[in-house]
Amino acid sequence: AVHASLASLERIGLLHGIVTQNVDGLHQAAGSSNCIDLHGRIDQVECLDCGARTERADLQERIRDLNLSWLQERGLLNAPPVEMRADGDSELTAEQVSGLRVPSCVGCGGMLKPRVTFFGGSVPKPTVEAASAAVAHADAVIVVGSTVQVFSAFRFVRQAAAAKIPIAIINIGDTRADALAQLRIGSDAADVVPKLVHALSNKGGARSS
Q1: d(CA 140, CA 67)
Q2: pLDDT for 51-110, tens place per residue?
């Protein structure tokens, strides 16, 4: 409901950008077109050498084709997909992946990884610059359903505060940015955002990020 509501705000011109920490692509799936994926996308793969990006689904097919006998030996050839963590990060033992063949980049033969910034990694500079520009051009910033605990996201709220851009927070529980906000709603975003969209759709509103 939240993703669809934010997409509705964009369609009527009241929301001009989303900076999301999620890597699931659900904002785009809901219809948002101006979305900056701060920590990347789990449905995409990138080469560490040449930077080429491909779809994760295509890589999964390549892995399957390279490891048919490996999958058959373990009874996994026709097994249903397992649920992944939201960040795509799973711990596997050396024994579990022993003998598994991992494809390389089709273009240069380099090593591939999910196009996400894992814990301890750095957000790419172009992504940081794009998010900073979105905040700089906003009339207001709304933090939706996030504690903005990690600095990669918090810095943009701090940027807005330094520029005296109004900040509103919709989140259950405390957030790192509470002291910077002019409005704090301690409720579930799924309950609040659709009502906010309804109200703004009827009245018009400010340009937000």
Answers
A1: 51
A2: 999 999 999 999 999 999 999 988 888 877 666 665 566 677 888 889 999 999 999 999
Q: Identify the CA nearest to 19 among candidates 188, 135, 165.
A: 135
Contact 147, 174 (CB under 8 A): yes
Exactly one of 16, 39, 137, 198 is catalytic; which is it?
39
Distance CA 11, CA 96 (A): 47
Residue 37 DSSP SS3 = strand
Would you say 143 and 177 are in contact if contact means Cβ atoms under 8 Å apart?
yes
Distance CA 203, CA 117 (A): 39
Look at residues 24, 32, 23 and name the one whose alpha carbon lies nearest to residue 4.
Answer: 32
95/99 Cα distance (integer angstroms): 9
- Are 200 and 192 in contact by the 8 Å Cβ rule? The answer is no
Question: What is the 3-class SS of 119-168, one letter each residue?
Answer: CCCCCCHHHHHHHHHHHHCCCEEEEECCCCCCHHHHHHHHHHHHCCCCEE
Question: Is-catalytic flag, 39?
Answer: yes
Residues 6+ apart with CB under 8 A from 125: none
Chain segment 17-27, per-residue pLDDT in tens: 999 999 999 99
Look at the pTM and tell me if it is higher than 0.90: no
Helices (H), 14-55: 26-30
